[in-house]
């Protein structure tokens, strides 16, 4: 369909939503009105007006002040048990497809351009016959694929996704390579178009790797460990330059204490907790600390009261420090609608590295 595009990725955690932020921002500078839809959503949240919608829909609607309602922008959601209900024939495939089509055309009829965001790689949703390729085919949309910043492995993943799109008769408008390391940028810029030539697909952009966009916040850790902050709620969006697991002496800890550290220590190490609180209170500047207290024994109430007297974001999770670190290192932070600095940084980064002329041609 004219003046619309479908964005899909070659895998999970590729940065599709980050790319979509930059694309939509760029489209808004080129068209008087731009709509957004996520036809099939997985991770959903409760909206400010009490509705249920995909989390990315909430992010885009609130940040860009989009006019379509949540149910139209997020027509199909897949909560827990959805696939089993489909296989038990409790959910009708054609009704879902009709809902997606109706929602898309409602948005297309009231906007000059529509950006559709897929879910994961092209094959996601195949179990209920609504993968990204099938949805793009039903809406008659070209697809832009997002790949990661390598060469061989990126082309391998692209080939699988491109073949599935070809099977459904879907055209690939172009490829955007995300998370490109600076020392490989020149090489990828030279060889990637050569690799894409076999499919006659253009390279639309190379997005530099920016570690900041992957940094989790204390708010993310609340969800990861299913707990609540003991203190510092106003600093729940704080990011950290360094994560430090404490296993040594108090003297060693204090000597290496730096600003913007996330400190992980057993709740029974009260001397570490007190030293951190004192350093924070005595400093003339905000040290930017955060703490995760670990272990099966929670902090004593007297320590909790001291913690609550500060604005350091601190939480307690009843796991050992090793398991906490393992969960954090395998966790992929997503951009939330309340993380304005990260949203703006993502838009600035992406928008300046995409060939919009080729994208919307």
Key features of this structure:
Rossmann fold, alpha/beta, 2 domains, 361 residues, Udp-n-acetylmuramoylalanyl-d-glutamate--2,6- Diaminopimelate Ligase, Chain: A, domain 1, 15 helices, five-stranded mixed sheet, 15 strands, single chain, six-stranded parallel sheet
Structural class: alpha/beta
Coarse morphology: globular
What summary fits the major beta sheet?
6 strands, parallel
Q: Could you spell the SSE succession in H and E letters? A: EHEEEEHHEHHEHEHEHEHEEHEHEHEHHH
The CATH superfamily name of the largest domain is: P-loop containing nucleotide triphosphate hydrolases
The overall number of domains is 2
How far apart, in Å, are the first and last alpha carbons? Answer: 12 Å
| Count of DSSP strands | 15
Based on CA atoms alone, the radius of gyration comes out at 23 Å
Give the integer mean of the pLDDT values.
93
Per CATH, the architecture of the largest domain is 3-Layer(aba) Sandwich
CATH class of the largest domain: Alpha Beta
Model regions low in confidence, pLDDT < 50 over at least 5 residues = none
CATH topology of the largest domain: Rossmann fold
DSSP summary: helix tally:
15
Helix coverage percent: 40-55%
């Amino acid at each position: 369909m004219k003046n619309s595009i479908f964005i899909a990725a070659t895998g999970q955690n590729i940065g599709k939503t980050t790319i979509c932020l930059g694309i939509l921002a760029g489209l808004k500078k080129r068209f008087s009105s731009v709509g957004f839809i996520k036809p099939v959503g997985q991770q959903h949240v409760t909206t400010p007006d009490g509705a249920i919608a995909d989390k990315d829909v909430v992010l885009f609607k609130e940040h860009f002040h989009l006019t379509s309602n949540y149910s139209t922008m997020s027509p199909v959601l897949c909560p827990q048990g959805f696939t089993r209900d489909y296989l038990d024939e409790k959910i009708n495939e054609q009704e879902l497809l009709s809902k997606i089509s109706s929602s898309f055309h409602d948005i297309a009829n009231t906007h000059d351009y529509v950006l559709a965001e897929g879910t994961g790689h092209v094959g996601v949703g195949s179990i209920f016959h609504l993968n990204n390729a099938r949805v793009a085919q039903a809406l008659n949309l070209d697809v832009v694929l997002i790949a990661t910043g390598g060469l061989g492995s990126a082309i391998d993943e692209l080939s699988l996704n491109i073949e599935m799109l070809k099977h459904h008769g879907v055209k690939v408008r172009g490829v955007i390579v995300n998370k490109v390391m600076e020392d490989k940028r020149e090489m990828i810029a030279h060889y990637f178009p050569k690799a894409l030539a076999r499919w006659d697909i253009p390279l639309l952009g190379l997005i530099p790797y920016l570690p900041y966009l992957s940094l989790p916040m204390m708010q993310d850790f609340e969800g990861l460990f299913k707990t609540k902050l003991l203190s510092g709620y106003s600093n729940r969006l704080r990011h950290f330059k360094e994560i430090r697991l404490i296993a040594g002496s108090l003297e060693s800890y204090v000597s290496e204490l730096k600003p913007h550290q996330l400190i992980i220590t057993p709740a029974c190490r009260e001397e570490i907790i007190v030293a951190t609180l004192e350093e924070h209170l005595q400093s003339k500047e905000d040290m930017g600390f955060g703490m995760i207290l670990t272990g099966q024994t929670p902090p004593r109430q007297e320590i909790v009261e001291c913690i609550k007297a500060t604005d350091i974001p601190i939480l307690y999770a009843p796991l050992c420090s090793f398991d906490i670190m393992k969960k954090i290192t395998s966790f992929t932070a997503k951009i939330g609608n309340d993380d304005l600095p990260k949203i703006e940084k993502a838009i600035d980064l992406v928008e300046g590295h995409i060939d919009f002329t080729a994208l919307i041609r």
